[in-house]
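> tool_call: predict_assembly(chains=two)
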Amino acid sequence: MPVWNATNVGHLLSRTLFGYSKNDLSVAQGYGTFSDLLDLAILKDNPAPIAPNVWINTLPAASQTTSGETGLWYREFNYWWFNLMYKEGLNMREKMVLFLHNHFSNERDKVVYPQNMYTQNVLFRKYAFGNFKQLVKEISIDPSMLIYLDGNNSRGASPNENYARELMELFTMGIGNYTETDIKQAAKVLSGWQVNGLTSTFVASRWYSEVSVTVFGKTAKFDVNSLIDHIFDQKATAEFICRKLYQEFVYYKPNEAFVLQMAAVLRSNNYEMKPLLKFLFTSDEFFTEAYVGSKIKNPTELMVGASKLLELSSPDYINMYELSKLLQMQLFQPPNVAGWPGQREWISSTTYSHRGGFTDSLITGKRYNGVAVTGKLVPVPFAQTFTNSEKAVEFVDDVCTLFLAFPLTAKKKAFLLDTLLAGTIVKNYSTYLTGVNVNLQQFFKAVMRLPEFQLC
Amino acid sequence: MKKELTRSEFLRQMALISGGVGLGIAGMPGQAYATLPAGLAASVPAGNVLVIIQLAGGNDGLNTVIPAEDDTYFAKRPDIAIKKVDALALKKGMYLHPSMTGIKSLYDQGNVAVVQNVGYANPNRSHFRATDIWNTGSDANVVWEEGWAARYLAEKYPSYPIALPSHPMAVQLGSVESLLFQSDIGRFGTVFEDPALFYQLVSGTLADDEIPPATLAGDELAFLKQVSSASVQYSTVIRDGALKGANTLTYPVTNLGKQLGIVAKLITGGLETPVYLCTIGGFDTHANQLTQHANLWRQISDAVAAFQKDLNAQNKGDNVTIMTFSEFGRRVNQNGTTGTDHGTAAPIFVIGNTVRGGLIGENPNLTNLDTNGDLKANFDYRQVYSTVLSDHLGLSLTSTAGIFKKSFDRLPIFLNSPLIAEAGVKVMLLDPAPNPASGQVRIQFAAFEGMRVELALFDMQGQKLGSIFTGEVLSGTYTYPVDLTHFLTGNYLISLATSTGARITKRLIIVN
């Protein structure tokens, strides 16, 4: 069993949550065991949140795009989700919803209506810790998915192959585990559906008329549910989804032996996610020291997490929304059907620079283009929430331990201390010095500009 | 699917790039080149530039370069076929999409080479795997983790990553670095959307000379530091280039128009970067494709026309070549939602003043399809890459073959292919395709001027078994399907003799 200590608890929180504040860490430490922390907080089932607004029930209509309403609603939807993440406490549900949104990647550019995208988001939340197989059945006839992968209006006589291909390649089995013929046959089974406003309906006359089709060597009159049962009977399926979870939550290069163990747990629990997550997050593999700090934060983790660390009372979700586009993680607009690839793919010369610009903006109150950012850090009272706020050396140590999963060298700590002191000496440093707010601003900017801050 | 900077390489790089610079802004220019590295042939003008335009999503080749006189095309695409009267006539029964007026006028000036039916054996129809294949230059059945352009750049800049060259090695307009520029010694691309903004963003970046520990997390930190060091160094060069360069006309207000406008500024502003990548997405036209496909090609065509005009006005046109690519073409049959599903071969455009304009290769054959109902490729995509690398960027044939781990016959894409000129015979005989072959084989040659040719099949004892073609040809590409059903399994020779003095043979293996 993994050792219960601050490093391990911090590692668990950093991977299951969108970052954490020092208060979150201390509350988590109060649970005493990983089992309790998981059962009573991280994997706890919480009631569904209140919907963002009444537009979720408004029938989609072209006038909503021409009037610009859909754009406004998507903004509201984004802010609403950012807020759920920011206020998630110690619960992993929103992290799983994002994982599922990335896995069953749908783009708003094609889906168009936030109403449909919201329905899908609700589905992800319902199954965040639930049955993955059932989720795949429901997502296969989800209006947003039908629109996005062209299941909408696909007819059995000349079916559209788009969803059938991605269902196998990206959602369940992985490339190399099926043939082009399997795709063509499955496309027939998946035909017959139509999106009508907020829901989807099956039109039997549009379905395939053959007596049976053959998929992975089995011949039957498959329907959506039996096809997906059949897909989940394939060995590759549990391994594929477990590999993806491993890469998201442990390390981006999968340990295949451990993935097989995860797959066995998933199968033996009939594709229920919660027992698998508990297995993963209590495993020695997860807490292997080498994995600590090895994940490059995704932009949402970076933005929400930085706001949590700075204990901002009301972070500027407009700022997050605008930056999410520049950092290449606009929610509901993944780059393509494979979702965001993650890890090093987040980083280019441009996105790396924008990351620093974002963390700066929480402190300066200004975005890179000069637009005001609300709810910025008030540095002095925040610094004073640290036990060692008046002892410069210890304060730097404490901030580094909390903010950085990667240990800093003495040289870098000395640089940070110099930045904090800005000419004064350790003995004279105090948060009551005149002008110390500028020192603190520079200091927090520098900490979050370190490449180490990008890791968790 | 890529390999990353290894530890030892990172150490070399960090030690040298930021040597002597403490915490704060780091980065020292590496040495600029005094002489051409060994692999680069001197016969191509130094300073040639390749601008790659990626068409993400799988471009429908048949509705781009259209066989509008082929009845099968209309039979298989009753709702989405584009009629001859609407399309822009090229030659040999092929037409451009009606919205490609800009590219059509470049074609009429002889500046557009259309390489038809480009693909590879055992084509993959997954967007992601297929894109990786096109970016790495691998066969379909092996996974490579480095971009082909990165391997070229590694050859051109052998001191990287020990030292950063003074100018960016590759520039990508966008935000997420393509696999094209990634390699196991590091990333070759500098990625940004706007030069001035990029400079401003980088200004707060901290870089340092510390060497991260040899741990998994340390490797990720090393990677982050490499990106930040390159950003710090190149943001100034790029901003200055953009300030010094100019656009002599207004580009279309589209994403691609903006990208090409910036590329033109950087080229005319003196950036020595040899490779640029621009991207336009939206080609995955499974449903209702007509309007979207038309809009996409209008964007490309208008932006490319503006770019060519701009470069010519600034006397840079002769140095710059555009090449398009997409991960696959689309199914010959339309699907049930007035769109097309994932397919295989498609045309590639190579555009520039030094290009030999025209259609290269035979027209798509809409009846001889693979078992999936998709086109069979006529050219391997690496033939196009190899041609561009050697005939435009001046890479030696040996080095070009090294990049793809095998040698590919080049195509007659450029007017003054230096290697062809050296040979002096003005003709190329391509490898028989497929080879080994059974049943039927395609024999192709390209004549660079009018000449008399004798194309024949010989056995290994030098006995002539039959004539394939004898006669006068004009400049162009010629394809002859040869029926092999009467030949025994074994080795044969295809021979091409011409009035220009060529005596070229290619080995053909027949498996019947």
